Structures are given as C-alpha cells and as structure tokens.
Amino acid sequence: MKFIHLSDAHLDSPFLGLSFLPFNQLNAIKNSSNESFHKAVTIAIKEEVDLFLIAGDTFDSVTPSPKSQLFLLQELERLINNKIQIVMILGNHDYLSPQKMLLPQNPYFKLLGANQEVETFKGNTQTGFSYQVHGFSYQKNHIHKDMVENFPVKDPNSFNIGLMHAQEERNQVGADVYAPFKLSDLKNLAYDYFALGHIHKRQNLSQQPLIAYSGNIQGRHINERGPKGISLVTVDEQTNQASIEFIKTSKLEWKLLEIKIPHPLKPQELFELIEMNINQNISSQNLVGIKLKGSEFLTEEQEELLREGDALKEISQKLKFNSALVKVYFQVSESIQLNPADKDAFQEAQKEILTKEKLAELSKSLVTKGDWINEMVNKQDFLDEVTELAQVKLGQKLKDKINETD
After folding, report:
1. Can you tell me whether residue 238 is helix, strand or coil?
2. What CA–CA distance (Å, rounded) separates 215 from 251?
C-alpha cells in the first residue's frame, strides 16, 4: 500500500508584505500554493498511490475564492479519475460547512467527521489490503477539547490511520485551542500511522508507532524556510510497517542570510553589498530575508530606506532566478559592545519595557486596524525584532559618542 500525507496547503494565502513587488512576480508567488498542490496530485498519480490524505487547512480561510474552489475540485477529480481514494478533513482555517463547499460527489472522495465528531472510513486497496482512516473536521476555528479520547480502538484486522489537525498540549493560557493532545495518548492508540496537520514544520513525533506532521506544501513567510512538500508513505502489507519519503513540491523557498557591514557605506555601496551577497548564496528562486550585522554603521536615513518597498524592489530587480528581497532585519555587530553599566541598564529597561504585556498595552489604540496586531505583538519573533532594533539604536548612539571622543 502507498499513500500521500498532505497538509496545510493554504490555498488563497495572501503572502502578506509583498505588495511592493511587480504585479506579475507577486501573482506568480501567490499562485505557488496551487502549483505545489498540483504537483502533489501529479506525484500521487505517477506513484499510483492507493490513498490521498488531506489533513486540514486546504484553504487559508472560510471564504475561499471561487477560483480556488474550482481549482481544488479539478485537482480532486484528477485523483478520482485515476481511482485514488481521497480522505479529507477541515482545519481551523477552513472550517466551512460542507454544504457551502464545491466538493466531488463520488465514492472515491470522503470528507471525514464533518459534524466535528470522529468518524471512520473503511477501504481496501486494489490488492485487497484493508485499511481504516479515523478522523474529524473542524466546524469552528478553535477546539479546546482533547479529541483523542473519541478515537476508536485500533482494529487488529486493518491498517489503522489517524487523521487529525491538532497541536500537542502546551498547558499555556490561550495556546491549547487546536484540539490539544498528549503524545502519550496517541501512542497508546497504537495506530499504524497517525497523519497530523496544523504545524507547518515537517517532523516525526514518534517512530513506533509512526506519528508525523507532513508540514505545509509551500512556505508562506520568512519563518517557513527551506523546501516544503508531502510525505509519500509506503506500507509493507505483510508486517504493517510504514516508511516515509519526503518529496518536495514547493516552487520557491524562503531563505534568511546574514550580511556583515564592516564600516560606514554610501547608499549605492550598501545596495551593491546586499545584491552581491544574495546572488552568491542562491541557486534557485528564493524569497530572501537578510540580517544586517553591523547596523550601527547605517545612518538613520539608510535604515529607513531599507524599510521602503521601493528599495527592496530596486535590489530585487538585480537578483538571479527571479528572486526577491522581502525582509530586512537590523543587528549590531560584536565589535561595538555596551560597557557593563550600560548593558545592565539596557537589560533592566528590557525587562520593564520590551515585554509582550507592555507591547500589548501600547498596541491597544491599534486594535481597530485588525486582529492581526494582537497576534503579532504576542509572537516571540516580533519581540525579538523589537529588541534588536533597540540595540541597533543604542549601537548607533554609542558609535556617535565614540567618534566624538576620538
């Protein structure tokens, strides 16, 4: 038996923060999720798999565009025409009512657990190998309850697959809202394979039994770097042992590079340094973020310039493989350090000011701009970036003071 484990396609993903790019380039980036899904289906057909599992968040929202719904229907019909069984669940992003979705009406397609209750699909491969898929779909964006207790006991006469869009329990306020589970409970079910969705990083939580996230099929921002794709699972029908092969489907990849600024540079020299470093470190189409180490050597005008979309666009036009510079981080170099007293003062200020709670309080007036602001200020990477920017500003002021005394 062979099957595909796919998750988190996020069709219609907006790829925020890239609006400065030329229309054709931006449109191609936005279409990359569709291309990745199409490639996954093509692989399934070529490999002649028996089963195609979709572990939630196929759409990025509960209001998918008609174009994306038609695209998904056409891709699923490609599988059906090749007699490949599809079992799909809905996640916390695409918790649509099945009646409002454009889905195949065919025995080769099954939307599992549409009433947010665990349901079992029973099937057989063309060789007569028996398998069961147990899972549920979201019907609201949060599920606070641990759903594992609702999964049935393993059937010893079939290959048992769990299908769930969920996150391991964290015991943190506001974190356990995506069907939180304990890994020990999943292991106790002893299913032959547990196909998970929701976490975008490809990873195996357990080898015996095999419990795995396939990750998403196309990176959507700088924190989703590297190749993305699907899991091709091969099952030994004599022993029920499964093995996973990762297959890349992502058209483009996100990359984060560090570039050192050795001394003050003119704007054109700065641009050329960035362009040269990026081109030396890419071999395919990439969306690139850079960390500028030594940002205390930048003037405030240069720093502001690199925040502008026009500057990123100008640099991007000179990159190979139709790549684009999409994000700039600023860091101080190791050569300019705070003295012990200044360092202690900075750390004390950081404790008092650079906290999630303080930033949340400062952002209250911005809430009307969108819920994403609250989500952003509660993310650790945002807090880290604010801290780095504060250090850059201190480094610039410290450099100026040192120059004044020379």
Report:
1. coil
2. 15
Confidence class for position 367, pLDDT limits 50, 70, 90: very low
Q: What is the DSSP string of 91-116?
A: -SS----GGGS----STTEEETTTTS
3-state secondary structure of 124: strand
Beta strand spans in 219-365 (E): 229-235, 242-248, 253-260, 286-293, 324-331
Q: For residue 258, what are its two tokens?
A: 């560090």
Question: Number of helices and strands (H, E) in the chain?
Answer: 11, 15
- pLDDT tens sequence across 307-359: 999 999 999 999 999 999 999 999 887 655 556 766 666 666 656 666 666 66
Q: State which amino acid sits at residue 390.
A: A
Q: Which residues contact 254 (CB under 8 A, 6 or more apart)?
A: 219, 221, 222, 223, 224, 225, 226, 286, 287, 288, 289
Count Cα neighbours of 387 within 13 Å in the Cβ-side half-sphere: 19
pLDDT value of position 397: 54
Parallel, antiparallel or unpaired: strands 159-165 and 130-135: parallel
Distance CA 362, CA 349 (A): 16
HSE of 369 in the Cβ direction (CA atoms, 13 Å)?
A: 9
pTM of the entire structure? 0.84
Nearest to 7 by CA among 119, 164, 114: 164
Cis peptide before 104 (omega within 30 of 0): no
Q: Which residues, including other chains, have CB under 8 Å from residue 391's CB and lie 6 or more apart?
A: 331, 332, 346
End-to-end CA distance of the chain: 74
Q: Please give the distance of CA 29 from its chain centroid, rounded to a whole number.
A: 15
49, 83 Cβ separation under 8 angstroms: no
pLDDT tens-place string over residues 218-276 = 999 999 999 999 999 999 999 999 999 999 999 999 999 999 999 999 999 999 999 99
